[in-house]
Amino acid sequence: MTDNSITHRKRLVVLGGGESGVGAAILGKEKGMDVFLSDYGNIPQRYAAQLEEENIPFEQGGHSEHLILNADEVVKSPGIPPTAPIMVKIAEKGIPVISEIEFAGRYTDAKMVCITGSNGKTTTTLLTYHILREAGINVGLAGNVGRSLALQVAREHHDVYVIELSSFQLENMYDFKANIAVMLNITPDHLDRYDYKMQNYINAKFRIIRNQTPEDAFIFWQDDPVIEAQLRQITIEAAKYPFSEHMEEEAAAYVDTLDNLIINTPRTSLEMPRKDLSLHGLHNLYNSMAAGLSACLLNIRKEDIRRALEDFEGVEHRLEFVADIDGVRYINDSKATNVNSCWYALESMPPGGNVILILGGKDKGNDYSEIEPLVRDKVKAIVAMGLHNEKIVEFFGGKVPVIRDTHSLQDAVDACAALATAGDTVLLSPCCASFDLFQSYEDRGRRFKNAVKALKK
Q: How confident is the model at residue 1 (pLDDT cuts 50, 70, 90)?
């Protein structure tokens, strides 16, 4: 070994100063690396303070190429596209680029339960975490929800991690392995990131099974046509555990003719009445099946799984009950930022045409025909809420009895209150991103809840 190899410290450059980036920087420091963090925008104050406290050099408001292009390896925030100018230069220099999850996975032998899908992954991730935590497992929550996996690996020890993974996070994962991989569904989303080619998006999602062996498990929705088509084209090493609404050949989870949820794995099997599940609606049945299968494969006692599936309280901004005012139920589904999410919300509503649906926001090229049958069957009025409602008003004109065109949240809630009568449900499930009127879907959801609660006064 030469003197040079003894003195050279690996230079790790982290791009992005959010939760994942700061966690990766701290893990790099813990492992003795020469760490530098750079953010093209502004780093939130709490993360900047954390970097200062850790004595990790960083910059914000731009990228200094001479401090970045000398990296041995780059950890990239999921939100930075590969087409960003700095990423193009990093690629030209041949510097390896990985994700925070990939980086953290090198330094832990914990079991990894990884969950992806176009819709439902946050609920399934939190439900799985809830089951394991309530069963007394030393479990960490990471990825799109929870805290940075890298930070937890650096400063804590968990036996199992439950990780929500977006397609963006999966892009730069190479050697990482999920012991249990969950694929809930695949519908068009983020296609602007994938050259508007659906197959590119599918390929990114399917990176979740990368490196799996026959000792690992792949849990997936058996009736998703996109997943089904992809499985016909590839070879899966892992043991397969499909779930379905009804009993089908090979299904490891389903609902039987007596309306009982059945879950069968080599380690654990359980049966419970579907009506006892805390989460209602078909999409939540699938989420519960995926979480239950994961827990069974980890050998959690069936009594613990059953109890946790019965008492889970759900996710903020996802079919969240807000209030009952004069017999009208108000539901916050602000997390429904695409048409397919709204479809799941409407599917969970009772029939009878008693839904007042709030739609609108920043349109991502939406095709509303997917929800048209459910709207005709269940919706008595649509309240459009956004800067540009023309597309919604035009598409649904003549298909619902009433359409109201509003341009603020307060006007939308007032319109709903005026239209609603006892027995109705007001559902905020916008189909759209929030950035026309709000900072985020969380901001939209919280302001909706505040406006609804103000109706009580």
A: very low
Say which CATH topology domain 320-455 has: Protein-Tyrosine Phosphatase; Chain A (3.90.190)
pLDDT digits (tens, 9 = 90+) for 121-173: 889 999 999 999 999 999 999 998 888 999 999 999 999 999 999 888 898 89
Helix (H) or strand (E) holding 428: strand 425-428
Binding residue per annotation — 118? yes
pLDDT score for 299: 96
pLDDT given for residue 308 in this prediction: 97
Residue 117 among known ligand-binding residues: yes
Report pLDDT digits (tens) over 251-296: 999 999 999 999 999 989 999 999 999 988 888 999 999 999 999 9
Dump the DSSP string for 292-326.
HHHHHHTT--HHHHHHHHHH----TTSSEEEEEET
Q: What are the residue boundaries of the structural domains of the chain, listed by start?
A: 10-98, 103-311, 320-455
CA distance 199 to 332: 32
Say if 103-311 and 320-455 have the same CATH topology.
no
pLDDT digits (tens, 9 = 90+) for 290-338: 999 999 999 999 999 999 999 998 778 888 889 999 999 999 999 988 8
* Cα separation, 47 vs 30, whole angstroms: 17
Distances 205 to 104, 111, 200, 373 between C-alpha atoms, Å: 20, 20, 9, 28
The CATH architecture that domain 10-98 belongs to is 3-Layer(aba) Sandwich (3.40)
Residues in the chain: 457
**Is 55 within any annotated ligand binding site?**
no
Q: Report the CATH fold assignment for 103-311.
A: UDP-N-acetylmuramoyl-L-alanine:D-glutamate ligase (3.40.1190)
Q: Helix-strand-coil percent breakdown of the chain, rounded to 5?
A: 40, 20, 40
